[in-house]
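Quiz preparation item.
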């Protein structure tokens, strides 16, 4: 059991007979009335984000979760397949459980989050940044714009995102998987 004072981003709680993780929270103390905590909760099974308000000091049941390192193997019509790095067992997961699945390439290391009591996989977390090769992009024209111009680029995983004009085909770039944006060129 925990209270609203124990809230932090990433905390997994049981709410409405489902598992949620706290994406964001804000403690509010209005001039009149009692304090409360405004939260954004992400359902670990469906991925849907809801907003909820808890009165300050309310007891919340926390769920025990474990992060286990896995390696991405491949995907097919049955889902995405990962191998546990310690037991070498394979687990197949649906695309909905993976944030940023379009940036996965074979051999990448990820963390699979399990519910500790039921041993059920809840979600997959990619590293914050991944390095990917650009397989196709139009050449940028020098002097084409004043500032911050971007162009579409196709990555080796099949994903597409916007990159600056100076990025060329066959270059390796660093991608932020949390926001699905270009970060920097890898030298």
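Solution:
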């Amino acid at each position: 059991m925990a209270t609203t004072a124990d809230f932090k981003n990433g905390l997994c709680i049981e709410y409405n007979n489902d598992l949620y993780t706290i994406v964001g929270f804000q403690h509010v103390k209005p001039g009149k009335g009692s304090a409360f905590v405004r939260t954004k909760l992400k359902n670990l099974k469906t991925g849907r984000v809801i907003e909820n308000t808890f009165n300050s000091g309310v007891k919340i049941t926390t769920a025990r979760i474990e992060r286990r390192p896995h390696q991405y193997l491949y995907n097919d019509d049955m889902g995405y397949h990962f191998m546990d790095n310690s037991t070498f067992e394979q687990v197949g997961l649906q695309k909905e459980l993976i944030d940023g699945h379009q940036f996965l390439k074979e051999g990448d290391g990820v963390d699979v989050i399990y519910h500790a009591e039921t041993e059920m996989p809840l979600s997959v977390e990619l590293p914050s940044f991944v390095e990917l090769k650009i397989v196709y992009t139009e050449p940028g024209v020098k002097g084409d714009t004043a500032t911050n111009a971007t162009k579409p680029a196709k990555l080796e995983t099949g994903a597409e995102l916007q990159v600056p004009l100076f990025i060329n085909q066959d270059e390796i770039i660093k991608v932020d998987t949390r926001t699905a944006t270009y970060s920097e060129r890898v030298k």
